[in-house]
Write a structure and sequence with these properties.
This protein has 9 helices and 5 strands, in the order βαβααααβαβααβα. The chain has a 5-stranded parallel β-sheet with strand order 2-3-1-4-5. It starts with 9 loop residues before the first strand and ends with a helix. The relative contact order is 0.23.
Length: 192
């Protein structure tokens, strides 16, 4: 059975550690490509929405980078893992529902099962993008190592994937980042 979303021309699956800049990079790409061409999809959004409903929490506050979200992060991760064990494609199917843009940027791919689902559903139009940042850069953005989070599957599940189609270095060098984004934009345009 085909997934409930449209037929994208390109699906870019972004992964990286917390505070590496995944959201920054996907939002920068969307601003260059336009929201009519490019949709930013977040696997964590349906997870957070369902978690908030089941635990009587404020869904909107779970979406931002607040201490509110951080207070629930570990339990939310465990809850999400149980959902994925029961149905590995549950959150993937949720985020593609009704998406009509030809380019999809999945901003928070964290597991092999996410990559496998998109590759099985969309085949050759699926590409992987790893956003990397030095630990020092991540710390400057507010990252602090949290046991049970930063050493868990949600942060380390793709560390040994090793076969990314693209690697974006986001160490704080704006000119270098801009060059990499332009290369990716050119590639996206070649697929439209």
């Amino acid at each position: 059975m085909a997934p409930p979303g449209g037929s994208p021309r390109l699906v870019l699956l972004f992964s990286g550690k917390r505070k590496s800049g995944k959201d920054f990079v996907t939002e920068a790409l969307q601003s260059r490509l336009g929201a009519d061409v490019c949709a930013v999809l977040r696997l964590s959004s349906p997870l957070k929405e369902q978690y908030a409903q089941e635990h009587s929490l404020d869904f909107q506050r779970l979406l931002d980078a607040s201490t509110y979200k951080e207070a629930y992060r570990r339990d939310m991760i465990l809850w999400g893992e149980k959902k994925r064990q029961a149905d590995p494609g549950f959150f993937c199917r949720k985020i593609v529902e009704g998406v009509s843009q030809p380019v999809w940027l999945v901003s928070d791919t964290r597991r092999m099962s996410d990559i496998q689902w998109f590759r099985e559903a969309y085949g050759a139009v699926t590409q992987t993008v790893r956003v990397v940042a030095l630990e020092q850069s991540r710390q400057q953005r507010g990252w602090v190592f949290t046991p049970g989070v930063d050493d868990g599957e949600s942060e380390c599940g793709l560390d040994n994937f090793g076969d990314f189609d693209w690697v974006i270095e986001n160490h704080g060098d704006e000119q270098r980042l801009e060059e990499q984004l332009e290369n990716l934009v050119e590639f996206v345009h070649s697929r439209l």
